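Hey L., structure's done. Input below.
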Amino acid sequence: MTHIPTLLIVDDDAGLRELLRTLLAGDGYCIEMADCGELALKLAAELLPDLILLDVMMPGVDGFEVCRRLRSDAMVADVPIIMVTALNDRTSRLIGIEAGADDFIDKPFDSVELRARVRTIVRLNRFRRLIEERHRADLLEEEKQRLVYDLHDNLAQRVSSVHQQLQAFAHRHPPRSKQTQEELGAILQLAQSATRETRQLMTSLQPEVQENVGLATALRMQIEECQAEGWDIAFDNGLGGERLSTNAEATLFKVAQEALTNVRKHAETQRVALSLQRVGSSVRLEVRDWGRGFDLTAAANPRLSGGIGLRSMQNRMKLAGGTLEICTQPGEGVTVVAELQA
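Output:
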């Protein structure tokens, strides 16, 4: 949606207000007017205009005082102010500068000069606002990244560790009574739920989490989530902390996610090995499970594949300029190998 700049014209002379409106209305501005200093302060706070054209000599609160009050109000302190004045002496201009004026136009003014100055200052103010908004967005994104790192490096790993230790304890010391079994089961479910909700929170903060933490760390987070659910899953990270292009990381991360989803839905196993290796100028991702496998020829038929999602992985790798190989036979598990230049 296009932003329409708002101008606030402040002058106790009705004729001059209308003249300024007439001169500037054709340039695409939304124009508001005030006939005194008090109304100008009120409208400035309500409208947050892009520019204020401010008369100096007004009864009551004059233009200098309006300018000082605007500059002392954080909400409108950055709004550009052009003083339109018949006072063209050096002392008056110094007072205006000290009050916070950005520019001056002498009465009587030249209409071409007036429009040019207004247009320039409005454009500069728009650029300033865009830069400030981008800076705020960058700061927010940095804060989100720090939070994702903190969640992964502290809370998520600790909760996952607690869950794994509880599982190990339950295995070493099987509860003898039904009540103890139920209580321990409830504790395990609570730890598993805490791990899952922490992962969901991280995903909501940064859906494309690999953009922030890198491919290897993002895959490790996925693996830890599976381990918290009781999976026997190994990860061989030969890539270390190396970062790839955004597209390469996103592609391989999505392929790994889809492969793990297929294991969850179809493999009838929780034993998985995942490998990430640098092979010359390429990066190789391998996901292997020890599940029931399937008939690859039948799976290639979308009507018979039961939603295994092979076509999605193949299309994703093809678009990225990589290759996808799937090795499987019924009863012998599945190995998915994705490789691309990175």
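The CA atoms of residues 167 and 302 lie 39 Å apart. The domain at 232-342 is CATH 3.30.565.10 (Heat Shock Protein 90).

-- N.
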